[in-house]
Amino acid sequence: MLKRLRRYLKKFRKRYILCKNDFELEAIAMKIPYKYAPKELRELLNSLVILIDTREQKNGHIIRYLNNKGIKHKSKKLDYGDYSFILPANKKLGIQRDIYFNNDIVIERKASLEELSGCFTQERARFENELIRASNGKMILLVEKAKGYQDIIEHNYRTDYKPRSFIGTLHSFRHRYNMEVIFADPAYSGNFIYYTFYYWLRECLK
Asked: What domains, with CATH codes, occur in the chain?
């Protein structure tokens, strides 16, 4: 069956290198089993709606970016992560209902190294459980500190967590849970969130 599925995806130019395993491969193929012309592809990509977890706080800079760019967004309780997206129904292009991707890809935002330090120490069990729940899809950790890695090494953060332990946990979690880590200035968080989902979806639809 999986061999037939691979041939099917190759026929429609699906790039299954994005998928962690055969189950994820099959799930995405079932969601969007079509090949789209360039104009149709742009229409679908421009229609995506950003999902923001209802518990997300102090994200006014991200909301402003989305509003200024005319990017649709809505609040929804997410089981893990702070941001994901949906592809709204478009019956003309074969999308019969809204397709949610919050089980496939999420972004977890940390506003500071102090917050991340807490997730690696006092809140370690809770945070690791969240990573476990997200491990069937893709988890991206966005840390709003442009020189965050350098600041960890130099202990430029206000906790007693030792830099060697901080770095060790960061890399251990990256490999253990296939977690991508991005350090960025908060001024560009909205841009990063939107285009992460935009181009991830683009690769799925091509």
From this structure: 1-31 (no CATH), 36-205 (3.40.50.10130)
